[in-house]
Design goal:
Aspartate Aminotransferase, domain 1; PyrdxlP-dep_Trfase; about 15% strand; about 400 residues; alpha/beta; binds pyridoxal-5'-phosphate; cystathionine gamma-lyase activity
Length: about 400
């Protein structure tokens, strides 16, 4: 069976599986052994979980590779494991990396706390595009790192342009593809070297585990894997099983996330009491044309600004019943939060306001419920808060 010739739904369901034909079960078994009876020189032998070479770990990783169009992939213990090992695979003391400024907060903390300690320089570029990122490249720069669509304002960065710039300047290009998922965006086909995920979000899709994945060419992914092995960033076998199970419905779920988010965004854009809706599927979004070119779907993430006081915004959040107030994203259940007090809580208020993250900005991870029910919940909470 040549899955590479088959469609994305088929690859979501079947790629990577490690069926045990002797038993005949139709799912990859959970292999619990932490030691394997393999001789050293056996090609592809299963050996030891921390070396990331047991079948339960291989299954979700290979599924991601099939969906990203990558030579290979690995599954690790968290999105931050994937991000930190990817950066450290190419950066050494004295090197430099260029990144966009509006990154996930944990990535930002990693740069400040760890790269600084290791003597690795970095430049964070506001309003990043290929030209502005290139302007920050120095002779010590080894990598460029972007995240698109970005959190929480869903800014879209031209991946083809950044990849071309990286090739010209001899940099390794990396993108955090978490918000889009490999169903909605295929960065490797646009010229990127590494596509990185917090699998905690869409890939697993059920808000019940932490994991991270990296997809790309074997030589580079092997370098990431070496760091992950040395830092012990293994994903345990039970979570690998859950991750693979979740990924089987990825393309199904993303189709629903895309449809629901589009419906919610259009409803919000037409509703009084909303001063901005940030969703790349709206023609008014500054990245809409670019998103149409480089994305295959606009995704389930959005943010919107309530035109009210912070107190009324709090009342709105408290009044939600179907939509749960929680951090994280990408699960089948709709989640909302205020970035001002979650992802951007540590940023000084003036800086936060300057980048567009106001006190009443709501980030919404639109789930797989019925769009009409999500909209009805938002409407009744706005009414309860007097937002009109
Ligand atoms: C865009 C993005 N990248 C990376 C991460 C980090 O992932 P994890 O929490 O799985 O380490 C997150 C977590 O929220 C995220 O939103």
């Amino acid at each position: 069976m040549d899955l590479s010739q088959m469609g994305e739904n088929t690859r979501s369901v079947r790629a990577g599986e490690r069926l045990d034909r002797r038993v005949g079960g139709v799912t990859t078994p959970i292999h619990t052994a932490a030691a394997y009876m393999a001789a050293d020189d056996v090609e592809g032998a299963y050996r030891y979980p921390r070396y990331l070479n047991i079948p339960t770990q291989a299954a979700p990783a290979e599924k991601l590779a099939a969906l990203e169009g990558a030579e290979t992939a690995i599954a690790l213990a968290s999105g931050m494991a994937a991000i930190s090992s990817s950066l450290l695979a190419v950066l050494q003391t004295g090197d430099h990396v260029v990144l966009q400024a509006d990154l996930y907060g944990g990535t930002h903390r990693f740069l400040m706390a760890e790269l600084t300690r290791l003597g690795i320089g970095f430049t964070m570029v506001p309003q990043a595009d290929a030209g502005r990122l290139e302007a920050a490249v120095t002779e010590r720069t080894r990598a460029v790192f972007v995240e698109t669509p970005s959190n929480p304002l869903l800014r879209v960065i031209d991946l083809e342009g950044v990849a071309a710039m990286a090739r010209k300047r001899g940099l390794v290009s990396m993108v955090d593809n978490t918000f889009a998922s490999p169903i909605n965006q295929k960065p490797l086909a646009l010229g990127f070297d590494l596509s990185i995920h917090s699998g905690t979000k869409y890939l697993n899709g059920h808000s019940d585990l932490n994991c991270g994945l990296v997809a790309g060419p074997k030589a580079l992914v092997d370098a990431v894997k070496e760091r992950a092995i040395n830092f012990g960033q293994t994903l345990n076998t039970y979570d690998c099983y859950l991750l693979e199970r979740g990924m089987k419905t990825l393309s199904l779920r993303m189709a629903r996330h895309n449809d629901n988010a589009q419906a919610v965004a259009e409803w919000l854009a037409a509703r009084k009491g909303i001063s901005a809706v940030h969703y790349p599927g709206l023609p008014t979004h500054p990245g809409h044309e670019l998103a149409k070119r480089q994305m295959l779907g606009f995704g389930g993430m959005m943010s919107f600004a309530l035109d009210c006081s912070p107190e009324a915004a709090r009342t709105f959040m408290d009044a939600l019943t179907l939509v749960l107030e929680a951090v994280s994203l990408g699960g089948i259940e709709s989640l909302a939060c205020f970035p001002a007090v979650t992802s951007h809580a540590k940023m000084p208020r003036e800086d936060r306001l300057a980048i567009g993250v106001g006190d009443t900005l709501v980030r919404l991870s639109v789930g797989c419920e019925d769009a009409a029910d999500i909209i009805a919940d938002l409407a009744q909470a706005m009414d309860a808060a007097g937002v009109a």
